[in-house]
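Job type: complex structure
Entries:
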Amino acid sequence: MLIVMLATLVLTIGLLGPTMDKILINSIKVGAVDSINQRAGQSFNSIEERQNYIDSQVQMQIKNLGLDEPWYSPKRFTNTVIKVITLDLGKSNFFTNDAGSASVRDIIVEKMPKTILLFTTSTIIVTIIGIYLGAFVASKAGSIWDRLNSAFAVFSGSFPTWWVGMLMIFAFAFTYHIFPARATPLSSPSDKFYFLDLVYHMILPLITIILVSFGSWAYIVRYFLVGVLNEDYISAKKAAGIPQKKIIYSHGLKNAAPPIITVVLLSLTGSFGGAIIVESVFDWPGMGKLYYDAINVFDIPIIVGVTYVSTLIFLITVFITDILYAYFDPRVKVG
Amino acid sequence: MKSTLNKSGLQILKDFRHSKSGIAGIIILSALILMSLYSFLFVPLKLFREWNNPDSWINYPKNAAPAWTNTGIFGPKMPEHKILSINNAVVTDSTQDDLHLKKIAFTFDYMYDKFPKDFMITYTARYGQIQPLLQIDISRPDGKVFRLYEASLPSTQAGNHTLFSGRVFSTDRAISKNLQEYRNFGAYDPQAPEKMIFSDHEKMHVLKGKYTLIMSYYLFSDSDSVIDSGFILGGQVYGLMGTDELRRDLAIGILWGAPVALFIGLTVSIAAIFIGLLYGIFAGYKGGRIDEGLMRINDIFYTLPQLPILVILSVTIGRNIFLITGFLIIFGWVGTAKISRSLALQIKNLQYVEASKLLGQSDFKIIFKHIIPQLLPLTLASIAIAVPAAILGEAALSFIGLGDPTIPTWGQILHDANSAGAASRGLWWWVIPPGLMIAITGLAFVLIGNTMDTLANPRSRFKKS
C-alpha cells in the first residue's frame, strides 16, 4: 500500500514537474519585468539594454532557485519530494489567512478543517442512509420501493452535484428565505456562537451532497446484498430460525461489504471532486473555494499546494478504505 | 462463430425494443441529435463563435426572462424585447431637387402592462462632408405624434464617403429636450422618455395599441445613402430561453451545447473504452509479469484524484476543447482495463483460442479475431455508460472556469451564472436549462447503457466486482 502511495506521489511530481517549472520560470519573468516597471529611477539607453538586464535578472533567479536543472535531476527531485512531504509549499500571490500569513501551508491549514468537516459529515450521513436504505430495499427486492430507489439512483447519478447546489440556493435562499445563499459564516471565529453559525451555514451544502449521493449508495448496497442473500448459507440461517433483520444487518451486510467498498472507493473519487466544486457554489470557506478562487486569479502556489494536499487526503481515504477492506475480507491479509 | 455472434447482436436489438428505459434513452438521444442538427443548420455559426464577445450582443436585453413566461395571467404582462431591422420596416424614397428623403417606418403593437425599459435606434449610413439630418417621430394609437429627435448625424472624420454606424439611445438628451414641448400632456420625465411616449396621459398607465416610429433621413448629396437602420425596444422578456447578464441569447448557447457535449462524451468514452479494452486484454492474454506490471500501472491511475489532476493539466497545458477531451481520456480507460482483463483471462483458456494458438496464429490476430469480438456487446454498453462521466467531467472543468473560451458549453454557461450569482438573484432561466441538459444527456446514455448491459450480459454487474 505504501508503495502505491509513493508511486502515486512520484507520478504526480512527474506530471507536475515540467509544467511547474514552466510556470515558475514564467512567473519569474513577469516578476522581473514588473520590478523594472515599478522602479522609477532605473533608466535604460535602449530597448536591447533593458532586455539584457531583464534576461540577466531572470537567469540569476532561475539559478538561485535551481531551475536550471531539469525537474528529474536527482537533487531537485529529492528536494521536491522532501518539500512536499514536509508541506513546504511556498507563498501565495493573492491570498492570506485570517491572521494575515501568505504562506500556502498556513492558508491551507486554516481552510482544511472546514473541508474535512463538510466532507466527513456528508460521507458519514450518506453511508448511514445508504446502508439502511439499501438493506431495506434489498429485503423487499422487486417491490415498488426497490424500483423507486433504482430509478432515483439513475436520476441522481446523472445530475451534477454543483448544479443541484445552485437549484438549492434558488429554492431555499431566493424563493424561501430559509437558509443563507452564501455559506461563509458571518460571525467571527472567536464568537462563542461561531460553531452554531457554521453548522447553520453548512446545512444547505450538506443537504445537497447527501441528496445527490445517497441514491447510488443505496443502489450499490442493495445490489450486492441481494446477491449475498441468495447464497445457500443465508437460506440455512433462515431455516435455522434466525430473524430476517439479524440476517440482513449482521450476516448479509458483512459478507456484501468487500465489493461494496470497492465500488464506493470508485465513486469516492467523483464525490471528492464534486465536494470541491460544491464548496465554491456555496462559498463554503474550505479548500474547494480556495481552489476555485486561486484558479480564477491564477495563483499558482495555491493551485499546486491545494492539488498536493487534496491528493494526500484522497490517498489517505483510499488507504483507510483498504484497511476496512482487509477487516471485512480476511482473505486479503493472506494474499 | 461469426454467425452466432451476429445472431446475438440481432437478438440484443430485438430485446432492446422491449425495454422501456432503453426506448426512453433512445428517444432522448434522438432529441439531442435533432437539436445538434438544428443548431448546425439554422443557428448562425457567427453568433456561436462570438459567444464571449460582448460587442455582438449589444442589441439584446440584459437578464431577460424567456418570452413564454409572459402569459399575463400570473402578473402584469411584461414588455417583450423587440429587435426590428430594416426588413420589418416600410421604406419610402422621395427626391426634391437636391434633397433626398428616405423614410423608414416601423409599425408595432404594444400590448403590455409595463413600460419598456428603454429603446435604441441604430443606423448605418454612407455620407460625405454634409451630414444627413435625422428626424425621428412616433405616432401613437390615440393619434398624437411626438417628435423625438432632430439632429444631423455626426461628422465623419475623413470627410469623404465612409461608412458610419451609430446609435441613438433613449437616454439621449436631445430626446428629453424635444419631449419638453409636449409637457402639458403630462407624464413628462426627463430621465425616462419612454414613459411619456408609451403612456395614456389621463389615466397614467400604458397606452396599448399600434405605434409607428418614423425615421426620416434627409440626404443632401446623391452619393449619400442609408444602408441599414433598426429599432430596438428594450423589454423584460426575450426569446425561448431568455438572456444572461452579458445580454447573450441563452437559446443559442444551449442549442450549441448539445453537439459539443455529444462530441466530448462520445469521443472520450469511445477512445477511453477501446484503450482500456486493448490494455486489459493484452495484460490478461499475456499474463505473468507483463500482466502484473501493467496492472500496477493501472492501480496507480486508479488512485489518482481525477479533478485536481485535470485542473493542473488544463492550467498548464491548455484549454482547447480537444486537449480537454484528451485529458478526460487519460482517466477514462482505467476501469475498463480491469474488467476486460478479467474477461480476457477467462476467454484465453477457451478451447478455440488455444486451438488457434496451437495453429501458430500471432497474438495480434488472436486478440483481434477471437477475443475482442466476444467482448464487443459489453464494450458498446460500457461506452454508453462512460459518456455521462465524460460530460460531467467537462462540465465540472468548465464550471471551475477552465473550459475552452471560444466555445460555449453548458458547464461554461453555469460557470457564468454562478459567478454572477444567478441562483441567489432568482434568474432561474440561466441556471435550470443548462444543468437539466447535462443531466438529461447523461441520463439518456445511462439508460441505453444499462439496458444494453443487462441484455448483452445479464451477470455483468457481478463481474465488475
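Summary: Chain B touches chain A through 53 residues (CB under 8 Å). The CA atoms of residues 193 and 247 of chain B lie 23 Å apart.
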